[in-house]
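debug: dumping io for the single-chain case to check the tokenizer round-trip. Nothing else runs in this session.
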Amino acid sequence: MGGNIIVEISVVPIGTGTTSLSRYIADCVGVLENEKGLNYQLTPMGTIVEGPLEIIFKVVKLMHEIPFKKGALRVVTTIKIDDRRDKKATMQKKIRSVLKINPEIKVAGS
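debug: decoded output
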């Protein structure tokens, strides 16, 4: 298998009786907390995960199942995969690359 990839994951439970998703998202992120070999960054609209493809696919499945276990009737999970094979890519390298061009750009959490 290849090296690390970067994936954006968004898990949206539907049919929960509330518009609030934070309790579902907290449990989904808890899956990442328990998995070695991954880096992740929670964002307002999803979670960015960096690590080996096979581990990420495993945690995506686990995260997708969380809302069902909590009573959701429907779950929409979206993933975007950035699989770069010509050189090692990391979340931080991608951000630094953009900031080199425009250091005035605001970065989440800073």
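debug: round-trip ok. The chain is about 35% helix and 30% strand.
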